[in-house]
Amino acid sequence: MRKIISLLMVLAFLFMVAGCTQYGARGGGVGGAVGGVAGALLDRSNPWRGGVIGAVLGAIAGATLTEVSSQASREAVRTDRPVEYRTTDGRGVYQAYPLDYDEKTKCHKVQERAWEDGKLIKDQIKEVCEGEKREKKY
């Protein structure tokens, strides 16, 4: 039974990573690595089980956080207004502020800030660029 559960968790992780964007895959990879190490250290009786469970949960959390960040940045650019997301318990706050636009690169700069329990844990500026869709025409 344990082997089946472990296999299902690994498959769920692989499907999740396969469906991620490059940005989300990076967050999922970092979250999976951190979660795997933490899980292995916390489950002393069976570190493999703890590592697998921690990796799956960490990957899901990491990919989710990067997707929220990406979505908020795109929304701030689209509306040209600050965007704020809060967790239901109010402990986590994420904000994205549109800054400026570079006509040459077609990229918008967005300042991202995140708080947890009133502490600033993230403050960075990133670019959101406009993509151009190209199709082969026959």
Reported for the largest beta sheet, the result is: 4 strands, antiparallel
Average of per-residue pLDDT values: 76
Placed side by side, the strands forming the largest sheet appear as 1-2-3-4
Rg over CA atoms: 19 Å
Q: Strand fraction band?
A: 25-35%
DSSP summary, beta strand count: 4
Structural topology:
Elements: H1 2-18, H2 22-42, H3 47-79, E1 83-86, E2 92-102, E3 107-116, E4 119-129
Antiparallel strand pairs: 1-2, 2-3, 3-4
Task: Give a description of the structure.
- Helix 1 packs parallel to helix 3 and helix 2 runs antiparallel to helix 3.
- A four-stranded antiparallel β-sheet has the order 1-2-3-4.
- A hairpin with a 4-residue loop joins strand 2 and strand 3.
- The mean pLDDT is 76.
- Helix content is 51%, strand content 26%.
- By secondary structure, it is an alpha+beta fold.
- It has one domain.
Key terms:
four-stranded antiparallel sheet; 3 helices; alpha+beta; single chain; 138 residues
What does this entry show, briefly?
The protein has one domain (2-129).
